[in-house]
Amino acid sequence: MREHIFSGWRESSRAFGFSQYDGPPLEPLELYKKKSGDEIIGQLYNFTDKGGREVALRPELTPTFARLAGARHRDYKKPLKWFAIPQLFRYERAQRGRLREHFQWNGDIVGEPSLSAEAEILAMIDHALRGLGLTREDYVIRVSDRQFWLDFLAKHNVTDSGKIYDFLQVLDKIERTPEEVSREKLGSLSAEVFALLNGGADSRRLDTLLAACASLGLSDAVQVDLRIVRGLAYYTGVVFEVHDRGGKFRAIAGGGRYDNLLQLIADIDLPAVGFGMGDVVIGEILKDKNLAPKTADGDSYYLVIADETLRPRALALASALRDGGYRVDYPLSAAKVGRQFQAAEERGHRYALFIGQEYADSGVCGLKTLATREQVNVKPLIVGGKVTALADG
Amino acid sequence: MREHIFSGWRESSRAFGFSQYDGPPLEPLELYKKKSGDEIIGQLYNFTDKGGREVALRPELTPTFARLAGARHRDYKKPLKWFAIPQLFRYERAQRGRLREHFQWNGDIVGEPSLSAEAEILAMIDHALRGLGLTREDYVIRVSDRQFWLDFLAKHNVTDSGKIYDFLQVLDKIERTPEEVSREKLGSLSAEVFALLNGGADSRRLDTLLAACASLGLSDAVQVDLRIVRGLAYYTGVVFEVHDRGGKFRAIAGGGRYDNLLQLIADIDLPAVGFGMGDVVIGEILKDKNLAPKTADGDSYYLVIADETLRPRALALASALRDGGYRVDYPLSAAKVGRQFQAAEERGHRYALFIGQEYADSGVCGLKTLATREQVNVKPLIVGGKVTALADG
Q1: Bond prior to A271 in cis (omega within 30° of 0)
Q2: Mean pLDDT, residues B303-331
Q3: Could you give the domains of chain B?
Q4: What interface predicted TM-score (ipTM) does this complex get?
Q5: Model-level pTM greater than 0.95?
Q6: Mode of pairing for the β-strands spanning A139-145 and A222-224
Q7: Do B212 and A17 touch (CB under 8 A)?
Q8: CA terminus-to-terminus distance, chain B
Q9: pLDDT digits over A119-149, tens only?
């Protein structure tokens, strides 16, 4: 399942012209403190290594990405479009400090100030989800504008960073909080905030984004929802989350614009937009929708060897099939024919290819589609050592 | 490059009916001590974690594999054919205790006592190397029989495990050691050992393996070389290494049969054969042979947008192309046409697709092959929102 998801992610990344990069799983603890402050340490799997260095297994790739982009951005034309599928780590307090790990698809565009970058990222996420078999009736991309709220607060003379943070936290939790509790916390701003949430905001950024999304054919996938603010402090503009429409699962993906982070981490002034999609939630949803891949093997063939004198012929055919791009397995030791057909099914192969005396005599073998029990005779055409087709036999 | 290599490894694994698995990058230190003894610790990136546990970043996947196979083997039909592409870690003493990391392709067959398993593994390695563009003139698979030497020593009443280890070490280093030094170390056995190395050994195992390799079309890839013993102590039968024929690089891959390790680690009595191929040496060889992929993108398209009024049309086309399986990039903000063609080349795209007024009027755009400057008119055929072909325009 994991490889199935990775494969979809990679394919969409390539379809959108993103290049793959990778970074070290272990980083100096300082890198995460610099981005997120000391309070992050409780969630990190950090330790002192043999050389006395304070290090942590990466909980996210963004700081690594920012450092790499800062170090190498002069070697590439902007905008950079980079993706990665890193393994990420958290300290699991509940399970007595165990390591919790998962994989995440990360995509980032660096050096593009316009909302075309956000639209491109959203289109890629949508492409990947559809590629994995979901439809837009299954998920929705909720877009919001964090800067809209910062402007709103500034207009109301809320400039204290602690108060701004508290306000964003109330919005972040508003969906799961009784309205009266949120209203109380919002105080004098509550009437206006609820009016904006219900009536929609006047955000030129969101208007521009929605227009680009419409051109990209995303209109029925994207929806404005100003409650989305994203927990982390570094976003500076549009933020978004992808959710299942049924609301059964946690967020499928999330991200946004972070125009200041590269300055903070790598001392370069470049705007950036990025997202992360974990393998866990999407895996749960695919299972729930019965979209998990049935077998790991797809269209694959199991050679049934009628008797051991035919094994050399069968092995040669296996090689020629594999060199021709076929996926092939066969019994490694002698087994009764019935057992071999059974093995073919148990291992999830689509076809059994029966190698009997007729194959030795005239190159014809029996091809059985295991699901339907349908059987036909085929003749493998071998050109330059490779099977180029299984012709009618 | 790394992804290019991984992709080749995955494709060969699937062609041979191997299923992918994964394990945790962090394991209890005990697991490695159990397999390799206390002396392994100097090479490990180990530490005490927040919960007070002694752990290590995995230096190899085999102990993890053995544990997983032991825990889950009842859920699968034997033989198991499993592969993984783990990231592995070593403690780098030379660089003041830094972490050294690389990736490795691991493939193992569990539950097959016959030499068919070894042959299958060798055929898969050969398939992958050819898939990456190498030929059998570039590499050779050297096979040996560790058990042959153990039997040889037993016949000469060498049964002390320290002496056996020393003997295998002499063989392991014999290629890089002056003959007189090796002869002295081998003492009374030296004449016979050198005769065997030069004259070939009488090993039924190797004869059977070579016959299976011949059926699989591997004869010109495989060569018996009794000097191969593999350093690690757990191999019990056939061992092998893959080398570049020029001898310029370290071993490309290595492995062998380890029929006792699952007993030791997981307390199950199942025979096994496995190998590992790192990403570093093969990467060096592909670069050396100029077989590195030219661009990460392959056949990809860069849309050149003649003026900004056409951007919505261009974005819609980008979506339809991507949904049709094309790899597509385009300028995220307004740029002069000349700059856009330049960007298409700089980013390594194969084609530029010019979207001008003619596309708006009649659906025709210019397709330029960047390497040859050849230009033709094409008309994207859009069916169900997807481009199914670029027809002559």
Answers
A1: no
A2: 93
A3: 2-288 (3.30.930.10), 300-392 (3.40.50.800)
A4: 0.81
A5: no
A6: parallel
A7: no
A8: 36
A9: 999 999 999 999 999 999 999 999 999 999 9
